[in-house]
Amino acid sequence: MATRVIRAFCRATLVLWVASGLGSEPLHISPRPASEAAGLNVSDPQLAGNTFDFRTCEGVLDGNRDFGLFRVKLAMPGVKGVLAWSTNDGSFSYEWAYPEGIAVQLKATPETGRVGLVYSVFNRTTAPLERVHLHTCVTTTEAPRFFPRLTPRHESQLPANTRDLDYTELFTRLFLWKSDRAFSLDSTEHHRRQVHLSLLPQGEAPIQWAWWINSTNTFDEPLIALASSDGQWTVGLWFERAGWASSNAGDDRACFHLFPLFGRIAPGDSATVRGAFHLQRGSPEDLRKRLRPLLEQSRRETKANQR
Questions:
Q1: Segment holding 122, helix H or strand E
Q2: Cα distances (angstroms) measured from residue 56 to each of 105, 154, 200, 225
Q3: Which residues 6+ apart lie within 8 Å of 229 measured at CB?
C-alpha cells in the first residue's frame, strides 16, 4: 500500500513538472454530439478555428479480437434514462459496458496544454483477457493547422474504390521514438505507399487486425505526436503503457492513434492506465522533452514487469 501511495505521489509531481512553463488556460473540452466513439471536442483558446475530435474509445481488443467497433454512444451530460456523459468540476467521465462482459471507464480532465486521461477496463466475463488494449483516435479534419495537404494517388497504395488523392503528407509530420531518436512515419519501409500504417512496441508480438499493415519498425516510448503544418504547435497522445500505434491517411479523417495497453486482466479484475491528450506550442521533440520524466518512469516500470 505504501509503495502505491509513493508511486501516485511521484506521478502527480511529475505531471505538475511537465505542465510548468506552458500557458495559463486549460484546454477546452466538451462531449461531441452524436459520436459513436465517446468523442470529445478538444481545442486551445490560443489556436482559434482548430478543433480535434478525440474519439476516446472506438473499440476494446484482446490481442487480435475486438468486442465491436463504434458502439460507445453516449447522451450529453444531464440526459436521464440513457447512458450519458457525467461532468464534475470541468471533468467529463463515463462507463460503457459491452454485452460481451467488458466495461470501460474514462475520466478526462482539462489542464494546461493537455487533457489528463484515466482509463480503466473491467473484465466481467468468466475467462481471462490476455492482452487488452483500447482503440483511441485523434482526427485532424476540423484542425486546419494540422490537416494534411492532399497528395496524388501514385505516391500511395489506395484501395481501388477510393478517389485519386490521399492524405499521406500527414506521415511526414507524425512522429514516434526509438532509442532516444524521433522518426516520422514516412521513414518506415512503406514510406507513403501504405495509407493504413501501424507500428508495434519493441519486443511485442504482432497484432493482425482490421486494415492495419504493420511496419517492421518499432517504437520504445508510449508517445505519438503530430506537428502542425507551420511547425508551431504539436498535438499528441501519451500513455503509461501503449500496445500499438497507427495512422489512417486514406480518407479525410486523417487521424492517428495510440492504444493504451492494459495487459492481462483476470475474471472479475480490472486494470487502469493513465495518459494525456496534449496540445501545446512547440515541436514534437519539445513535447517529448517535457514528458521525459514520465517516459523514463514508464520505461522503468515496463522493464520491471518484464522480469
A1: strand 114-123
A2: 10, 33, 20, 17
A3: 145, 146, 147, 149, 173
Mean pLDDT value across residues 8-26:
52
> Lowest-confidence range among 5-14, 126-135, 183-192, 250-259?
5-14
pLDDT of residue 158: 55
Mean pLDDT of 302-306: 61
Please, which residues have CB within 8 angstroms of residue 92's CB and are 6 or more apart in sequence?
A: 29, 30, 31, 40, 77, 85, 86, 107, 108
pLDDT of residue 151: 79
- Number of C-beta neighbours around residue 297 at 10 A: 15
Of 214 and 162, the one with more pLDDT: 214
Sign (positive or negative) of CA dihedral 303, 116, 131, 209: negative
CA 286, 290, 291, 292 torsion-angle sign = positive
Could you tell me the residue ranges of all domains in the chain?
2-306
Residue 213 has pLDDT above 60, yes or no: yes
Beta bridge mates, 97: 103
Please give the Cα distance from 83 to 97 (Å, whole number): 10
Centroid of chain to Cα 152: 28
C-alpha 58/C-alpha 56 separation (Å) is: 7
Tell me how far apart the alpha carbons of residues 246 and 108 are, in angstroms, rounded to a whole number: 22
Q: Is 285 left (phi over 0), alpha (psi -120 to 50) or beta?
A: alpha
Q: Domain 2-306, what architecture?
A: Distorted Sandwich (2.70)
- Higher per-residue confidence, 69 vs 166: 69
pLDDT of residue 15: 46
CA-to-CA distance for 205 and 91, rounded, in angstroms?
36
Q: How far apart are CA 197 and CA 19, in angstroms?
A: 31
Could you tell me the maximum CA-CA distance found in the chain, to the nearest angstrom?
A: 59
